[in-house]
Design brief:
The protein has a single domain, classed as Zincin-like (2-Layer Sandwich), CATH 3.30.2010. The protein has 8 helices and 3 strands. Strands 1-3-2 form a 3-stranded mixed β-sheet. Helix 2 crosses helix 5. The termini are far apart.
Length: 175
Amino acid sequence: MRVRDTQRSKLYRAEAVLHKWKKPLPAVEDVAVYADKVFGSKRVRAAFPNAALHDTPRVKDGRGIRNAKGGRFFISIPRWARNDVVVLHELAHTITQRVWPINCAGHGWQYCQTFLKLVLYMIGREAHDAFKAEMKATRVRFRPPRKSVPLSPERREQMIAVLAAARERRKSDGR
């Protein structure tokens, strides 16, 4: 079952803040070297041990496609996308698909959490903080959903009483 990717456009808007820090990677070989650097990083290996068990994804030159693509074992990077920010975006797809192989949206919270960590590890704290603030501003989820805690009977009764009082006030105000 595929999970719906509901926050893709919001993430792309938030990602625009990173273009201030992007560095060009003009050739496919440069992209491959950068991908090796990312997967060889001790911090990345420690943060994503399941993803590090596999080899660095193969870098394709992106001929015949318009958009960059990240898969479990490869990334395709057309000419326009050859910079470190887009490569990190696609490598985050690779890592996410390796760590959470099922029930994970393309740009879901797991992906966003991974991408945010890669930005911290490879670009730096300033870029990370700016990206995180922009993700919050555009309401991109990058944390696991909160667990709901069942109400105790006492708390339930208290909430019912508060709601009843609010309804009475509303009635008496004539609304």
